[in-house]
């Protein structure tokens, strides 16, 4: 991991609070927040990032981009707003909901393709809790963040299966040898309660 590996707990808290502030501002008046120069400088490196919104009972929105094509300072704002308003699985978040939503930010490393001579090797080349997965084939693609299999109690094979399903592929397509499978790591920062203290989540690495 490069710049993102240097993120401190206080950096994570700043990112999560900025995500919440960005959503609050956008829902209030439709504007993007104006970033402080110090914030832009601190997070001026390119990084993939996902913003996840959770409510009692489950997910409320999760949007992000896995590739480091945008400065983190800008990406955190864009993806936070998108998680609240553009996740096609959910209706847009409303202002009155914000007090019940926990914000979570995952800063990603550059995805790398897993090199195998036999698809069975994938099971030993990924680690639940540490790795996220991207599985793609033709125009199909699916991504699951590192924290997802731990939340559902999946092993490595189940993780591969569910990532295939997320991509719209058969669950065992990873065994075909035709899929491109990439892994990445993530640093996860999350509010303990809505608008509460921000903590770094362990990914088992």
Describe the model.
The structure is a single chain. With 205 residues, the protein is an alpha+beta fold. The chain folds into 2 domains: 3-109 and 186-201, Hypothetical protein ph0010, domain 1 (Glycoprotein, Type 4 Pilin), CATH 3.30.700.20; 112-184, Hypothetical protein ph0010, domain 2 (Dna Ligase, domain 1, 2-Layer Sandwich). Helix content is 30%, strand content 26%. Strands 1, 2, 3, 4, 5, 6, 7 and 8 form an 8-stranded antiparallel β-sheet that branches. Strand 1 and strand 2 form a beta hairpin. Helix 1 crosses helix 3. The longest helix has 21 residues, at 9-29. 38% of the residues are buried. The model has no long low-confidence stretch (mean pLDDT 93).
In CATH, the homologous superfamily of the largest domain goes by the name: Hypothetical protein ph0010, domain 1
- For this structure, what is the CATH class of the largest domain? Alpha Beta
How much of the sequence lies in strands comes to 25-35%
Radius of gyration, in Å, reads 17 Å
**How helical, in percent, are the residues?**
25-40%
Number of domains: 2
Q: What assembly state would you assign to the polypeptide chains in this entry?
A: single chain
Structural class: alpha+beta
The count of DSSP E runs of length 2 or more, i.e. the number of strands, is: 8
Task: Report the end-to-end length measured between terminal Cα atoms.
Answer: 12 Å
Query: Quick check: average pLDDT?
Result: 93
CATH third-tier fold name of the largest domain: Glycoprotein, Type 4 Pilin
Instruction: Based on Cα principal axes, name the global outline.
Output: globular
One letter per element, helices H and strands E, the order comes to HHEEHEEHEEHHEE
- Architecture (CATH level 2) name of the largest domain: 2-Layer Sandwich
- Which blocks of ≥5 consecutive residues have pLDDT under 50? none
Largest sheet: 8 strands, antiparallel
